[in-house]
Amino acid sequence: MPKQTSAERLSQWAKRRSGITVLELQKLLEEPDYPSFHQLVTELLAGGRLTPIKASGLNGRVPSLANKYRIIQPREDYGECLEPIRSLEPTLNIAAYLQKPHYYVRHQEILQGLSRYLWYQAHLLEQPMSRKERSFSIWGKEKLIDEQFSLLWEVFRFNRLPENFLNYYDTPEPFFEYVHGGALPRTLLVIENKDTWFTLRKLMRETGKNRLAGISVQVLIYGEGNKVTKPKALENYAQEMFGREVLTEGEFLYFGDLDHEGIQLFFRTQRENPKLKLRPFQALYWKMLDLAAERELQPSPDGRNITVRVREFTRLLGLDPDEDKDKLAFLLRGDYIPQEILNYQVLAALLE
Questions:
Q1: Is the CB of residue 93 less than 8 Å from the CB of residue 159?
Q2: N or C terminus: which one in the chain shows less Cβ crowding within 10 Å?
Q3: From CA 156, how far away is CA 161, in angstroms rounded?
Q4: On the CB side of 332, how many CA atoms lie within 13 Å of its CA?
Q5: Distance between CA 30 and CA 315 in Å, rounded?
Q6: Crossing angle, helix 6-14 and helix 22-29, to 10 degrees?
Q7: What is the rounded distance in angstroms from the CA atom of residue 201 to the CA atom of residue 109?
Q8: Over its length of 352 residues, how does the chain's per-residue pLDDT go in tens digits?
Q9: How far apart are CA 64 and CA 61, in angstroms?
Q10: How many CB atoms lie within 10 A of CB 87?
Q11: What is the sign, positive or negative, of the torsion defined by CA atoms of 150, 154, 157, 161?
């Protein structure tokens, strides 16, 4: 790592407090030789980065220095921000950002995604989505609202936007399953993430529909991440809830994130529940790939370098690992498609 300059060190110190004693200054600048230190302070004074606090007196050495200094931070140049600010969607408080461009710098990541969404996809705000679905829909990061919640509401207050502007709903801790109809279920869908489970459950209850992407689904099961991969967890649960017949007559579909961890969860669930006919829900994964084709994908949050059966999973999706390698290249890069890309509106269109 390159050594910090004197100016950079002063800037770091000034983030905590603007005043500094001469002894603290000498330690900060790492200059034990006093004549050299004096010369360095003289240059910082001449450059306007320091100003002596006269009331502190002199240090009694030759040549003398003040006992205390005030650090002067250079004025920020926000010239490069003005054009991006003027390009914001007019719902946002452009005038306020032009007056206070330092807020634009602070809010930039949130503003860029939000402004683009308002320019091109504002109609999607007319219907609700879950919190993670909306977060991914706007910023391509399903956890941004959760991770930057305080900053997001600061942005909303600055732009005078109402709290419900993003029109999302929170997903409470769910029951493990949702049953559509009372007959012996023929198709049971295991869903990796809570938001997608809750959204699909919400749609099926509100519409009375249960034919998803051409397949009639009677039961939605929230897999709760690794919980569904415990030995015989899904087998025992299904048998207890629906009887032994479901083990032989029921078909279990799986749907999760499209990354190494999501693929591993599928194969672990399959391995630990050998009596079940478990396969990926092809049509939903295909829809994920279609929607992600024009997106800049994020690195998978699972940073482990784990080996998974990508080629085998690809074939289970009805794809060819070689012919469709461009479509699946993101897996080799370590990127991922969260299942929240299939948000409320997308799932509603797939339900009939």
A1: yes
A2: N
A3: 5
A4: 10
A5: 61
A6: 130
A7: 32
A8: 567 788 888 888 888 888 999 999 999 999 999 999 999 999 999 888 899 999 999 999 999 999 999 988 877 777 888 999 999 999 999 999 998 888 999 999 999 999 999 999 999 999 999 999 999 999 999 999 989 999 999 999 999 999 899 999 887 544 356 576 656 678 899 999 889 999 999 999 999 999 999 999 998 988 887 788 888 888 888 887 788 888 888 899 999 999 999 999 999 999 999 998 899 999 999 999 999 988 888 888 776 666 788 899 999 999 988 888 888 889 888 889 999 999 999 999 999 9
A9: 5
A10: 11
A11: negative
User: CB of 225 within 8 A of CB of 192?
Assistant: yes
Which tokens is 118 given?
């308002």
DSSP conformation letters of 160-229? T--TTTT-EE--PPPPSEEE-SSSPPSEEEEESSHHHHHHHHHHHHHH---EETTEE--EEEE-TGGGGG
Q: What is the DSSP letter of 80?
A: G
Residues in the chain: 352
264, 313 Cβ separation under 8 angstroms: no
What gap in Å lies between CA 77 and CA 213, rounded to an integer? 53
Cα radius of gyration rounded to whole Å, the chain: 29
